[in-house]
Here is the input.
Amino acid sequence: MTRPAYAERVPEFDFTRLRRAPDVEAPNLQAWDATDELLVREALATGIHGDEIAVIGDDYGAITLALTDAGMRGIRVHQDLVTGRRALARNAAALGTGGFESRELDESLLAGIRLVLLQLPKSLAELDEVADAIARWAPPDAVLLAGGRVKHMSLGQNDVLGRYFAEVQPQRAERKSRLLVARAPRRPEGAPPFPVSTAHAGLTLCAFGGAFAGDRIDIGTRVLLGQLPAIPDREVVIDLGCGTGALAAAYAMRHPASRVIATDRSAAAVRSARATMAANGLENVTVTLDDAGSELPAGAADLILLNPPFHLGNTVDEAAGQRLIAAAARLTRPGGEVWTVFNSHLDHRRVLQREVGPTEQAERTPKFIVTKSTRR
Here is the structure.
């Protein structure tokens, strides 16, 4: 096979041109890291053609666009977050480049793929699901290059990959990043390991690997669930940032005449929430993949349930939660209510007061505050 021209090139892509938008942008946040650069360099060195490469976990398109800039075409990309998908599209348009196809985490992403480039996910469950998918659907000679920042890597990641590949080799760290090379995928037997499910006092919760908290109910959600008897019956309700759908499902079970919309920016969360609704036989809940309800009209909701995140990737940051609070203000009709649970050390009550309207405390625990805000 003739080595393509890009296989001889040192990557010269200008990563500083990339932007995180529409995700949160800040001086301490950038749209790429050294791991992206290592993965691009190693991919170019293999000489494998773009239509035999899949990229998974490319937050804002750094890997994909650096490869297309080098002349590769036909790259398949899977990003869990819709903000990442939109950032990739924006960055590609700004750079005037293409040559990639967005896919979900299924056989269409991995069939015929010889090289998979992966930004290692935070959770071992998500890595388990990704590794199973590669071993299940990629060819026997497929190679996985998985990279991450050394401070976030663990031996547990090697163990997960070792269940699905006969050979896993850690590489020497460079610029505080490290690659793992996995070869000889072991074809899994039986059904995929996800979704998993657990019954919680009348509510069955389902989760795919990339969903926050898995099939457990996280403690913040549990506190807000305890307030459900006090939360009014309303016609249109939005669970904003729904995760696996616990709040939406529990509310819909108590109020079967309500129309509930559960929305999240994570594809894994949306798949999980849909499975949760099916497991509980709920037909009055619609689950959508969206960024902070951006595709819903202003004033669409009589009531919003909100358990906002306080992390951006591996960084603790209040901006993501404040962004959802601003979205809740846009989506709630005048006189409607926003019920929010958040860590007690966060300044969200002041933000709710400013963005939504009069805000009162409904409950306080040692770690969490629940508030009720009325849209002015």
Summary: The two ends are 67 Å apart (CA to CA). The CA atoms of residues 53 and 115 lie 5 Å apart. The longest strand covers residues 332-343.
